[in-house]
């Protein structure tokens, strides 16, 4: 018998009579002998075995084994003629246990031992399904056809099994068990051999050692070498900027990281400090980068060009040269947003509303013009992407802003203006028909923007004046109500209404006529109430005398006449609640045109004459009337010297431009002043409704100073007999309201100088110098 061609022989099956090995059995004596080939016919060729190049053909229905027919098995060749197929060696530790169940009946002792195959023996699914149980039983041995009749030929019973398929336990490749081994001629895996369409068919081969592992090792080695070279090159260039690299015009190519940062800082620092030129349409301004939160980030700019990277593009830049790169900016967003908001406000161009006006009576329109406003988002984008990367100025995108009054609305208003001045308008009022010419209409007409529209407006007051000027006695003036004293008591007189034209009604009528086809405007006279009505005065409650005071007159008639004129002007003066009475305002102007004359006055302590002399007595008398009425003292000043006709410390003087006498009506009622001269005295009364209770007192005189005669040789000297000596005095006043609550508690102290007599001569015992005496 020939030897197997393997380098390591497969172990022989155990043939000893151990308990695990079944005893050989002889075939039955009645087994039929194989048929001899018919005369004249060539012997039938043995069935072809499947190979790796040809996948086994699917058996036809006619050729499928049946339950009665013996199962077909592989033929056993002659030991000398049979070729043992090459089976790759299997190491001992890789050999799995063979699962094999011998037939239950006697098998010929001449059975050829199968090669031991590592793996698990399994029948193909098709064979398992097609082979009945009966097919596993031994059949009559059928010798190899070529051995029939040959002496010494062993007869071997065919094994009723399909060639085994070996499946290693775990490893798989692409869903197919690795290491699957089949018996020669079988392809249960479905992979097929060479020439099949299966994607792994080329790896099965013909049983010879494959060259694929060697090729894969070579390719893998090349890849590893190239990867190592690529990584090494990237490490080599990690701290270098690619050659010919420029940032905003600054060349930093080939420099290390630190050198590039220094070079970039030095090159761009001057530009980074310069104010940015900003434009937005036709508007322009400047912006300080630092104040706007913008700065150059030199480290960040260089960082994007250096450092270890596995990017092929980075290595390519080092090999062929870099390119222009925009600088990286450090941006303070909060500060930048505030700066952009300022730009939006400062660069805004306001739209121009359309207008219509009259020039020399001709309507002229001003065209509407769109405005513009900077877009904050777009401005931020421009500043953060173009600054330093591009030279200025930096143009900020703008958005149009439509005017409130568009050109269409302007044109409509112009048409109205032209219609208004197309001719005169006749006003029909009462029995008069004044005509307003186009020039007058143009002067009183204007166009005002209201809710996005130009509305025509006519000046009603000017139209009323135009109508009245073109009529005769059209209007009557109202008579204001006022107080007059009749029978010594205040009464209300006047208060009759007058007639007038309503400015709004006239404007509406004229506008309607001017814009219509009938250019006639009918209007009506309306009642005009007086500014001061009787009802308003009655409500003031002027019903009784609440205070009165009198001072004696002197023997100077001119002075008395001045007081009489003053009393006329004071009488009837109304002081409403909360108002302040001013004596200067009531008497002014104090001149000859108002009935006053020059009389004796004290000017800077000197007795002389002046316009309105004696009116200080009116001030003193009126002050005391208000004092006892409980009114608030606003302003008063006593004389520098005391006159016996006035209460000491409780009197007043006036001087136009410097001194006034004023008090305030703090009651809830109106007050009417009354003054007159009778019985050698000046009288002043206050008419109102009693509201306050007044208590007064005065201290005794103190700090007494006697008078001293004054001698004067001045040409303008006026002799004066003298008056009282000097002293100090304090006056007290308490005012209570109707609830007896103290509302005023005050005191006033005044010091008088001595009222010295004046003699217009040299002092006694002093003679004038004699200039006639000569020398010796």
Automatic annotation (TrEMBL):
Protein's UniProt keywords contain Transmembrane helix: yes
Pfam families per record: PG_binding_4, VanW
Region of interest (Disordered), residue spans: 1-82, 129-207
Start-end of Low complexity biased regions: 18-42, 50-75, 129-139
Keyword Oxidoreductase: no
UniProt keyword annotations, A-Z: Membrane, Transmembrane, Transmembrane helix
InterPro entries, per database record: Glycopeptide_resist_protein, Vancomycin_resist_VanW, YoaR-like_PG-bd
Domain YoaR-like putative peptidoglycan binding: 405-516
Biased composition annotated in UniProt, kind: Basic and acidic residues: 1-10
Transmembrane spans: 215-237
Source organism superkingdom: Bacteria
Protein name (record): VanW family protein
Organism listed in the record: Xylanimonas cellulosilytica (strain DSM 15894 / JCM 12276 / CECT 5975 / KCTC 9989 / LMG 20990 / NBRC 107835 / XIL07)
């Amino acid at each position: 018998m020939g030897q197997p061609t393997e380098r390591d022989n497969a172990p022989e099956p155990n043939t000893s009579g151990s308990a695990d090995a079944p005893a050989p059995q002889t075939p039955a004596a009645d087994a039929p002998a194989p048929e001899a080939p018919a005369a004249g016919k060539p012997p039938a060729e043995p069935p072809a075995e499947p190979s790796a190049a040809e996948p086994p053909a699917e058996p036809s229905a006619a050729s499928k084994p049946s339950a009665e027919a013996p199962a077909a098995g592989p033929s056993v060749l002659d030991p000398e003629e049979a070729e043992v197929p090459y089976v790759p060696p299997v190491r001992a530790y890789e050999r799995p246990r063979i699962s094999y169940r011998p037939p239950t009946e006697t098998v010929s002792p001449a059975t050829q031992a199968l090669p031991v195959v590592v793996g698990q023996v399994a029948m193909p699914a098709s064979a398992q399904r097609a082979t009945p149980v009966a097919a596993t039983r031994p059949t009559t041995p059928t010798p190899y056809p070529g051995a029939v009749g040959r002496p010494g030929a062993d007869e071997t019973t065919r094994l009723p099994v399909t060639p085994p398929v070996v499946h290693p336990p775990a490893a798989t490749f692409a869903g197919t068990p690795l290491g699957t081994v089949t018996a020669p001629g079988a392809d249960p895996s479905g992979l097929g051999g060479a020439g099949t369409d299966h994607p792994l068919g080329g790896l099965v081969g013909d049983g010879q050692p494959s060259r694929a592992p060697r090729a894969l090792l070579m390719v893998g080695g090349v890849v590893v070498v190239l990867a190592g070279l690529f990584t090494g090159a990237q490490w080599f260039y990690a701290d270098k900027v690619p050659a010919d690299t420029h940032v905003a015009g600054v060349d930093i190519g080939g420099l290390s990281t630190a050198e590039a940062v220094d070079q970039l800082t030095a090159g761009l620092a001057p530009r980074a400090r310069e104010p940015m030129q900003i434009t937005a349409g036709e508007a322009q301004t400047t912006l300080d980068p630092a104040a706007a939160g913008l700065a150059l980030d030199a480290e960040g700019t260089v960082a994007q060009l250096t450092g270890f990277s596995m990017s092929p593009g980075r290595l390519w830049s080092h090999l062929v040269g870099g390119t222009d790169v925009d600088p990286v900016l450090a941006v303070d967003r909060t500060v930048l947003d505030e700066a952009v908001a300022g730009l939006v406000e400062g660069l805004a161009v306001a739209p121009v509303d359309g207008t219509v006006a009259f020039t020399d009576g001709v309507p002229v329109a001003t065209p509407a013009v769109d405005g513009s406003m900077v877009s904050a988002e777009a401005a931020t984008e421009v500043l953060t992407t173009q600054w330093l990367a591009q030279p200025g100025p930096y143009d900020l995108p703008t958005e149009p802003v439509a005017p409130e009054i568009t050109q269409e609305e302007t044109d409509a208003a112009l048409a109205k203006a032209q219609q208004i001045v197309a001719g005169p308008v006749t006003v029909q009022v009462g029995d008069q028909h004044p005509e307003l010419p186009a020039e007058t209409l143009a002067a009183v007409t204007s166009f005002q923007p209201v809710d996005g529209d130009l509305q025509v407006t006519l000046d009603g007051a000017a139209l009323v004046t135009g109508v009245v000027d073109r009529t005769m006695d059209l209007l009557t003036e109202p008579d204001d109500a006022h107080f007059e004293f009749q029978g010594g008591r205040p009464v209300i007189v006047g208060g009759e209404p007058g007639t007038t034209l309503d400015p709004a009604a006239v404007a509406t009528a004229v506008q309607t006529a001017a814009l219509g086809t009938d250019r006639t405007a009918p209007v009506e006279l309306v009642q005009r109430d007086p500014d001061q009505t009787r009802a308003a005065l009655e409500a003031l409650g002027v019903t009784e005398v609440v205070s009165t005071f009198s001072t004696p007159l002197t023997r100077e008639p001119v002075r008395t006449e001045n007081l009489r004129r003053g009393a006329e002007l004071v009488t009837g003066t109304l002081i409403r609640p909360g108002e302040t009475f001013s004596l200067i305002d009531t008497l002014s102007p104090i001149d000859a045109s108002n009935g006053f004359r020059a009389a004796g006055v004290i000017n800077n302590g000197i007795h002389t004459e002046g316009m309105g002399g004696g009116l200080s007595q009116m001030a003193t008398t009126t002050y005391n009337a208000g004092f006892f009425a409980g009114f608030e003292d606003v302003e008063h000043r006593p004389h520098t010297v005391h006159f016996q006709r006035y209460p000491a410390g409780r009197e007043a003087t006036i001087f136009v431009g410097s001194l006034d006498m004023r008090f305030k009506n703090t009651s809830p009622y109106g007050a009417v002043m009354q003054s007159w001269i009778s019985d050698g005295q000046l009288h002043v009364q206050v008419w109102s409704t009693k509201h306050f209770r007044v208590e007064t007192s005065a201290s005794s005189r103190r700090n007494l100073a006697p008078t001293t005669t004054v001698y004067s040789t001045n040409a303008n000297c006026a002799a004066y007999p003298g008056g009282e000596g000097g002293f100090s005095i304090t006056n007290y006043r308490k005012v209570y309201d109707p609830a007896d609550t103290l509302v005023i508690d005050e005191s006033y102290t005044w010091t008088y100088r001595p009222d010295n007599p004046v003699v217009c001569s040299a002092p006694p015992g002093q003679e004038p110098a004699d200039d006639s005496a000569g020398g010796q």
